[in-house]
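Review this:
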Amino acid sequence: MAASAAHDGAVERIVIENCAIATVDANDTEYASGHVVIAGNKIEFVGAGKAPENLDNVVRRIDGTGHLVTPGLVNTHHHFYQWITRGLATDHNLFNWLVALYPTWARIDEQMAYSAAQGSLAAMARGGVTTAMDHHYVYPKNSGDLSGAIIRAASEMGVRFTLARGSMDRSEKDGGLPPDHAVETLEGALADTEATIKKYHDASFDAMTQVAVAPCSPFSVSTELLKQGAELARRLGVRMHTHGSETVEEEKFCHELFGMGPTDYFESTGWLGEDVWMAHSVHMNDSDIAAFARTKTGVAHCPSSNARLAAGIARVPDMLAAGVPVGLGVDGTASNESGELHTELRNALLINRLNPVHREAALNARQSLRLGTYGGAQVLGRADNIGSLEVGKCADLVLWNLNTFLHSSIADPVTALVFGAAAPVTASFVNGKQIVENNRLLFADEDAIAVSTRAEAQRLARISAQG
């Protein structure tokens, strides 16, 4: 059934035709040659063959011959600020990597956060991400308006965005990993998180900016911050995000400090539920997976980062079989230097096949695409408005160029996208507005971003060296 925009002659329409389409709807409907019509900021038609004739106010027609149209990619876990600390501590596990980098991260300021956000967003947007999120949890004193800088960068880029307003209050003196000057007080973190939600969170159907409550991790926040953070999120009706079950060291930490594993600890603090998603969830036993499935707690799977930090292989096939919502995440670019989500489609498939239980049956191309689109929308609580190409949903979609020599001899377009080299993006639309054309950003100067991120990385390095 067409959306109401079909009857509105004033709305501007964009018609994409002659393309392969993977809708990623509930039936995984695909068209070998089909059309998508964008009306304003919504999808008005999607189907086989040519678009309906006699559409009013068509402002653009795109010939998608040799292309695949999919929903825009949805990133479910990231740390934008890390763009200016890439390539450091390259041979460390998670805890040693954090100890090595926290002293540097504790010296970021507003300009650094803005520039790093531009770099992180540019890499994702140019690679087909239409919805991004940033888990920012480092708020040094007198560092400026970091949350505002990050949100501004996302707005300028034209990307749909969730800021997971993070926090840390367990420093080295309390048995945590962050240095003392890198953390906030319990009261300060909660107050600023609430203020950020009230200022920026938009609960509407086609919202471009949302905010989640996101204490960093069990080893960097107090039990009270987790408990009161959950109460705050549910009082204000926003989602909740944190790191969980990432490494064996984390599991050992939780048993030593709390007398239980990460999942049981999270449940005891109110951190399981359909409004919660966890980053990583690598070391999950059957009971943990069952608890996530029972509560519909989501997971952000970050295969490249998990490999970079030698964290392990998450049990994604078992989670999916149990009914756990799973999306994909880039993770911070200090542990995934490429910063591109479309490469995670391939890496998720390949790394999960290394699991000795499932092997070649772990994931297929279409399951991987679903993780990066509809699965991510589920995890962010937005499956009713993004994540699949369906009439009435927001017009967030990508036109992938499979005409290149790297892809043209692969007959199946979804296989070409997932198994093949990273495909160029001919066009990417967010909320009906094009943000990428022929693999270049339309609302950001990539060369200028290269200059500014290099300068800010060098400035941060100098400040850190001075102690």
